Amino acid sequence: MSVNAPSRRVARLADCHNIEDFRLLAHRKLPFPVYHYIDGAGDDEITKRRNTSAFDDCDLVPNVLAGVEDIDTSVTVMGKKTPLPLILSPTALQRLFHWQGERAVAAVAEKFGLWFGISSLGSVSVEEVGARFTGPKMLQYYYHKDRGLNAALIEMARAAKFDAIALTVDTIVAGKRERCLRTGFTSPPKITPASFLSYATKPRWALDYMFREKFSLPNLERHVAAGTNVATSVADYFNTMLDQSMDWKAADKLRQDWGGTFALKGIMSVADAKRAAEIGVDAIWVSNHGGRQLDGSRSPFDQLAEIVDAVGDKVDVIMDGGVRRGTHILKALSVGAKAVAGGRLYLYALAAAGQAGVDRAVSILENEIIRDMKLMGAKSVADLSRENLRWR
Questions:
Q1: Distance in angstroms (rounded) separating the CA atoms of residues 152 and 147
Q2: Residue at 1 is within a domain
Q3: Per-residue pLDDT tens for 311-325?
Q4: Alpha helix locations (H) across the chain?
């Protein structure tokens, strides 16, 4: 498969020194339909590229002689203090990328004390994650037509003592993910004549998929066929299962039904940010779903400042999208984000090497944050401000 294929080779985990290296190794390890599901985005993928390139238009201006032998990288976000200003965003289908799936990501989040999210389309149950892993946990919530399923998801999170629900609001219909259309990606995978060779030439992945725990979506399987072994595209799931009538009234009712820490994920306009603050959410995620929905939409970093200025004193503003470097995180924090989140930044690592890969990726970002804060002359996150930024 030649579509957007990486141009250089990374052979092993020890060769991975940044997030792009994990992407290259994931490309080697995964069958092409699975890889391109992670790596792909909507339409021409302009927004996906802009999510990362937006950081290049902003320069850091460091201070020196600040006495930075000891620094504090911690933040308090959604009521929890975490050692790093980083959230591992909830993402779907993780056991398709590596057999350890959400268990690997949860274990690393627990080790580093980070917020971690389970998707409604998670491949490990909310109950198991709640029972096995400590630390702050959220359920990423899709609003379904099936009201029984909606209620069940809330009760799962409550019974598992999850700390927050994040309602995704930017998937009212599916984006046109053309790589998935070309590869025929479904969950679970459907082997086709076009994709057979890719699966056959990745024997380690194929053996893990066939002979380890059967793949399923346990948070859905008691309610809908999409939680069983019926092959379904993500686009079909969004377009048939999710409720397109979802509005502000429905979001507010969900917030009240949950009764705990509540976030809206996928806010991009100031008007929506203000409305979210008015209904009393605890946090908003400035996110365009990794460029996988509305192509041509603005990047979260480009949009961050005006949203922070509008509601940053009322809700926690989390920026999610395009983050690949510690400097990206520092730039978002300097604009005013309470924390920075990402999915691909650990999904590539999960696909490349399971828990060891995710651990190495988070360790690399931790080291970059610490080093870059010291080079910025910032003893704490509170020392980062727009005074240290210049836009080109």
A1: 8
A2: no
A3: 999 999 999 999 999
A4: 19-29, 32-39, 46-53, 94-97, 101-112, 126-132, 147-159, 178-183, 196-200, 203-211, 234-241, 248-258, 270-279, 300-311, 326-335, 344-376
Tokens (6 digits) for 9: 């080779």
Domain annotation covers residue 11: no
Match 């409550």 to its residue by tokens. 158
pLDDT, tens digit (0-9, with 9 covering 90-100), for 176-223? 999 999 988 988 888 777 778 888 889 999 999 999 999 999 999 877
Residues designated catalytic? 289
Count of domains for the chain = 1
pLDDT in tens, 32-68: 999 999 999 999 999 999 999 999 999 999 999 999 9
CA 232, 236, 240, 243 torsion: positive or negative?
positive
Q: Which residues of the chain have pLDDT under 70?
A: 1-8, 224-230
List, in order, residues 6 or more apart from 377 with CB less than 8 Å away.
Answer: 62, 63, 64, 65, 66, 68, 383
- Whether residue 382 lies inside any domain: the answer is yes
What's the CA gap between 198 and 191, in Å, rounded?
A: 10
Burial class of residue 111 in the structure, from the number of CB atoms within 10 Å of its CB (0-12 exposed, 13-18 middle, 19+ buried): middle
Task: Please give the structure tokens belonging to residue 33.
Answer: 């339909």
Task: Determine the structural domain holding residue 56 and report its residue range.
Answer: 20-391
Give domain status of residue 15, yes or no.
no
Q: How far is CA 159 from the centre of its chain?
A: 24
Alpha-carbon distance of 258 to 265, in angstroms, equals 16
d(CA 68, CA 370): 10
Q: Please report where in the chains the tokens 């502000």 appear, as a residue.
A: 248
With 0-12 / 13-18 / 19 or more C-beta atoms within 10 angstroms meaning exposed / middle / buried, residue 211 is: exposed
CATH of the domain at 135: 3.20.20.70
Distance CA 167, CA 255 (A): 9
How does DSSP assign 270-295, residue by residue?
HHHHHHHHHHT-SEEEE--GGGTSST
What's the pTM value of the predicted model, to 2 decimals? 0.94
Average per-residue pLDDT in the chain? Answer: 94
